[in-house]
Write a structure and sequence with these properties.
Blueprint: H1 2-23, H2 26-29, H3 39-59, H4 75-84, H5 107-119, H6 124-140, H7 142-151, H8 155-167, H9 169-177, H10 182-203, H11 209-222
Helix pairs in contact: 1-10, 3-6, 3-8, 3-9, 4-5, 5-6, 6-9, 6-10, 7-8, 7-10, 10-11
C-alpha cells in the first residue's frame, strides 16, 4: 500500500509542477518543494498519526473485551471467524453456522480470518494486530488530505486539516475500537477524491491513462466497501 501511495503522490505532484510552471503560477498551489510538504515532513506526520493511534490502543486497552467500546460482535468478525473455522464465507450474525452470505465485501473478512487463523479467534494478539494495521491505514490518510488541500484550499488549510486528523482523538477512535474496514475505506475514498481533482490534467495526456488508473483504484475500493460505488460516478469524463 505504501509504495502505491508513493508512486501516486510522485505522479500527481509531477503533473502539478508541469502544469503550474507552464502557467507561471508555481507558488499558488504547489508544495512539492515546500518545507511543509517535503517527503521527510509527510513521513513524520504519518508516523506521529500512527503513534497516536497505537498509544490509544495500548494505553486505553481498546483490544480488551472489558472495554465499553464493544468490537466483539459484528458481521465482519463473525464471517472471519467462520472462515477461520473452515465453514466458509457465512454466518454474519451468529457464532453458529447459518449458511453462506454476501452481506459484506470479501477482502476484509478474509484478511481478518487470516489473522484469526494464526493468532486465534478474537484473542488479544489478533485484535492488537488488526487494530495496528487499521491505525496504519488511518495514519496514511494524512497523505491524500495534504494532496486534496494542495489542489483546493491551499497549504495552510491543508496543514491544519492534516494535524487535526493526526491529533484529534475522535479520528483515532475508529481505527482502534471498530474491527471494520472504516479506516481503509476512508483512505481509499480520499485517494479517489484527490485523484479526481487531478483527472483533468491526467486526461489531457497523450494516452489518457489517468482514467484507467482511477477506475482501477475505484474497483479496488469496491472489494472492501461496495456501498461506496456511487462515489466514483463523478469520475466519468463528460462526453
Amino acid at each position: 500500500m505504501l509504495p502505491a501511495l508513493t508512486d501516486l503522490y510522485t505522479m500527481i505532484t509531477a503533473e502539478l509542477d508541469e502544469q503550474q510552471q507552464s502557467q507561471g503560477r508555481v507558488e499558488t498551489h504547489a508544495c512539492a518543494d515546500s518545507p511543509f510538504c517535503k517527503w521527510s515532513t509527510i513521513f513524520w506526520m504519518v508516523l506521529i498519526a500512527f503513534a497516536v493511534r497505537v498509544s490509544f490502543l495500548l494505553l486505553l486497552r481498546t483490544y480488551s473485551f472489558e472495554r465499553a467500546d464493544d468490537y466483539g460482535v459484528g458481521e465482519i468478525n463473525n464471517i472471519a471467524a467462520s472462515i477461520a473455522k473452515g465453514l466458509g464465507f457465512s454466518s454474519p450474525f451468529s457464532n453458529e453456522y447459518t449458511g453462506p452470505t454476501s452481506w459484506v465485501a470479501p477482502v476484509y473478512p478474509y484478511f481478518v480470518a487470516l489473522v484469526f487463523r494464526f493468532l486465534g479467534i478474537m484473542t488479544h494478539a489478533s485484535i492488537i494486530l488488526i487494530f495496528t494495521v487499521q491505525s496504519l491505514f488511518s495514519a496514511l490518510t494524512v497523505i491524500p488530505i495534504l494532496g486534496i488541500a494542495q489542489r483546493t484550499v491551499g497549504r495552510r488549510a491543508g496543514m491544519w486539516a492534516a494535524w487535526t486528523w493526526i491529533l484529534f482523538p475522535w479520528f483515532s477512535k475508529w481505527a482502534v475500537t471498530w474491527l471494520w474496514e472504516v479506516s481503509l475505506s476512508a483512505l481509499l475514498f480520499s485517494l479517489l477524491f484527490w485523484y479526481a481533482l487531478c483527472l483533468p490534467d491526467a486526461l489531457s495526456g497523450p494516452s489518457g491513462s489517468g482514467l484507467y488508473r482511477v477506475r482501477a483504484l475505484l474497483g479496488a475500493r469496491q472489494k472492501f466497501e461496495p456501498s461506496g460505488y456511487g462515489s466514483g460516478l463523478y469520475l466519468e469524463p463528460s462526453k
